[in-house]
Amino acid sequence: MSAVGSNIPHDSAVTHVTGQSTFIDDIVPARNELYVDFVGSHVAHGKVTSIDLSEAHRIAGVVRLFTADDVPGHNEFGPIIKDELLLVPVGGTVTYVGAPVVLIAADSRAALRAARKAVKVSIEPLAPIFSIDDAISAGSFIGPERRIERGEVEGAIRSAPHVIEGTLEMGGQEHFYLESQAARAEPGEGGSIVVQSSTQHPSEVQSIVAEVCGVGFNRVIVQCKRMGGAFGGKETQAAQPAAMAAMVATLLKRPARVVYGKDDDMRFTGKRHPFKIIYRAAFDNTGLLLAYDARLFSNGGCTCDLSPSVLERALLHSDNAYFIPHFRVVGRVCKTNLPSNTAFRGFGGPQGIAGVENVMEEIAQTLKIDATDVRHRNLYRDGRGQTTPYGQIVGNNVLPRLMDELRDSSEYNHRRREIDRFNATSRTHVRGLSMSLVKFGISFTKRTLNQANALVNIYTDGTVMVSTGGTEMGQGLHTRVRQIVADDLGIDYEQVVVGTTSTEKNNNTSPTAASSGTDLNGAAAAEACRALRERLTQFVAPLLAKADDGLTTSPEHIQFENNEVFDTRHPQRRMTWKDLICRAYIERVNLGERGFYITPGVDFNRETGRGHPFLYFTNGAAVTEVLIDRFTGEMRVTRVDLLMDAGVPINPGIDRGQIVGGFIQGMGWCTIEELKYSDKGHLLSYSPTTYKVPAMCDVPEVFNVRLMHNPDNAISIKRSKALGEPPLVLGLSAWTAVKNALSYRSGEQVARLKLPATGEEILMTLTSYDAPVKPGRATPMLRAVSSAGQS
Ligand code: MTE
Ligand code: HPA
Ligand code: MOS
Questions:
Q1: Which of 312, 313, 646, 615 is nearest to 442 (CA)?
Q2: What is the DSSP letter of 198?
Q3: 449 within ligand 1 shell (Cβ under 6 A)
Q4: Is the CB of 181 under 6 A from ligand 1?
Q5: Under 8 Å between Cβ of 53 and 65
Q6: pLDDT digit string (tens) for 108-140?
Q7: Which residues have a catalytic role annotated?
Q8: pTM here?
Q9: Strands 289-301 and 326-335, how do they pair?
Q10: Which of 200, 272, 313 to mutate to test the pocket of ligand 2 (most atoms within 8 A of CB)?
Q11: Is 724 in the pocket of ligand 1 (CB under 6 A)?
Q12: Handedness of CA 514, 517, 522, 528 (dihedral sign)
């Protein structure tokens, strides 16, 4: 039976459930291991004037304290530009609350905690910037303005029958992975060092550790067995704890570990980028979008990190599923005094898509027609337009099919009529219904990153180990890679294991990100298997020929299947895989191979804003219904119907898990999760008590998830489609459903709504639709409650 296509349990299913899976902080400490933590800035912006370590030095168990002067190599690092400091020196500028200034190495966690309180860092405050608006006023930006443009936006807007304009504000999102940022370093001989890191990007951790420690990349081995979740948060920001642990291990010649506490992790690491989109949209009487003109501002935080790439993906997704003839999106990253914002599942895509999905709802409200009809009119479609504003043709376009199938299966039309009736009569509640779509581009927009290598070793008992640069964060990469290798060598899934990801085995690897982990690493592993099969075929053909007299066996007829190798024309000529490997070893056949893969054809010119950035698109649609209590603003998602184009899934069960998890995480961003800061830039919502992520009780009461069968995508590994990030975008349908619900109460005005649509935001919006409050009268909310009492 082939492994690919079957519902094999996740590689770590049993060990996760039984608690045997190890994460960084589960590694049994070495006898002389040090606990390491940092003391960061208590102000968001300021100049470090002095550091006083005298009191901390006196604490028993404190082994050493380090400042910027102790960094053996470079103190500067960063994924795009090296604008980050491992430790801010005296005289240097701190640019966010938590910016590390002092490193503490101690024999116990208790000593670490005591020392953290005893270190005195004096900082002369400077004026901070926190919001996008303040950054725009101050001209505080990172990188140049970016733009993607097609057609004649101004002309189209001038001559259009309808124009709407507005501003959409979106909040950030905490990654809330269960395993905090963590790393452990062990020093070796001659300046070498082994780092175990909870990272999506072992090669980047390797290079940063090497530069901080002042050694060649070849002296540093970075390993990642797995992460307890990452969601983009460990693409770049796993490097800081790894560099801290490595620096201490190198200087003190002792193993060292850094594990951020949950609160610290939430307070001091970057998040999803908040965005502000200022837009104009022109359309005709039928809802056809003629022009979209948007300015996107993201809150990048204090350093560059990946912000320009996140902005780029937001711009590239601002069309979403819709052909827009006249199109102009212009983007800027704002520099503020918050922790540097970073990759988060969707990588700017959700923010760009929110912009145009918001417009779809507003067109419908303006024309008093159904938003699903508006979306349908504007779809990329044969005869209407299949070319994106950046010039890539939308291939294998299943969007119309997805929409039609989901509209039927979700009983959209029937439910719309029912909701119209309900909302006309209910005095207590309002319901909303909305379909939103996703067209998500698969590939790194940076061409170089679209490469992978894989090592496949066959041992003399016939078992196989495959190692790639891909990292496991729960998404099922290792399971899929095992399935691919098992099938390609014609052996059982159980005969294959995936080795710990390590820079020693796989060099110069890309982050496991952009949803392309399986596409890239699976293809590299498949390439290694192809080469092994070819070599083994050459070896076995003459052996099989000898099994029968007279007839020949030529390599093109040899097949590997069911733990055997055989001649397809003379199936009696066969040998077990075990035998084959045993004999191949004796005859000195090379039983290891390294595969290499590059994504064909991808290219994008960021100066012109044109090109072919994506290998293909993953599409999906969701219809979401919400029920809102008009007196409290409390919202419940009552039903979701979701249809996803996953190509031909390698593991339908794992894909389903990704879809469900992604949707709920997106819904959390749109409707529940809210980051609150003090006016000094301290995060107030820094623990689960004040920052609410979706829980079991928030899962839709009815949640129908289907995978659409689409075998026409021949371009990616085993005809599968990447879907780590795309389903998150469909969480937006909960937000558009709220917007739809509010439109039943907003009278003649278009219902405007911030993202996230928290209960508070919904209540305030509903309240604003009521008659203005006269002095001395009850507030609208109180009036609503008392009228409810009468009904
Ligand atoms: N699923 C789990 N369980 N945990 C994670 O951290 N990260 C997401 C997604 N799904 C994540 C996840 C993100 S941000 C990406 S880019 C992809 O997985 C990365 O893995 P893939 O490329 O192998 O799909
Ligand atoms: N997606 C996710 N992560 C990335 C990308 C991207 O396009 N580019 C660089 N890191
Ligand atoms: Mo995912 S945001 O590309 O790590």
A1: 615
A2: -
A3: no
A4: no
A5: yes
A6: 999 999 999 999 999 999 999 999 999 999 999
A7: 725
A8: 0.96
A9: parallel
A10: 313
A11: yes
A12: positive
